[in-house]
Amino acid sequence: ITRYMYLSLTYYLSHGTWYSENNSPGKSCYLVSEITFANWHHFFKMTSSMLGPQAHENCDCRRPNKNVFEQYENRFYYNDQNSNSVSFIQAHAFTDIHLRLNAADAIMPDHPLKHMLEELPATFTGDWPTFISDY
Question: CA-CA distance, 113 to 109, in Å (whole number)?
Fold first, then answer.
């Protein structure tokens, strides 16, 4: 699953309709096109907020530069109203998975560490087989 499939699915779960350019805030930032945002930080923040008031997402996301070894994009969505949860853990074929939130706690609304994620050390670093067996 790609980030855009994840974002499209969670948007649908939140709003009951598929995302379209017509329902973008300000008609300038598109959920499925990161290049329409000012930068990656703006993309992470705005796409999380676009998922709506009845759902929440914790975005354990970091993209400080073009070095793929320093990039993380892990998203944890939960909709209390519909009891839906979806997780997106990004891993490239040649890099380890990095998580700064415990995956089991990551769907907590307003996780206490949500606003300081970039300062936290990884709680898990490893490959897919290890990640799957641990979680």
Answer: 11
SS3 88: strand
Tokens for 16, please give them.
Answer: 């009951």
pLDDT at 71: 81
Q: How far is CA 107 from CA 23, 28, 29, in A?
A: 25, 29, 25
Are the beta carbons of 14 and 31 closer than 8 angstroms? no
pLDDT digits (tens, 9 = 90+) for 10-29: 999 998 888 877 665 555 67
CB 100 within 8 A of CB 70: no
Q: What pTM was computed for the model? A: 0.80
Using an 8 Å Cβ cutoff, are 24 and 30 in contact? yes
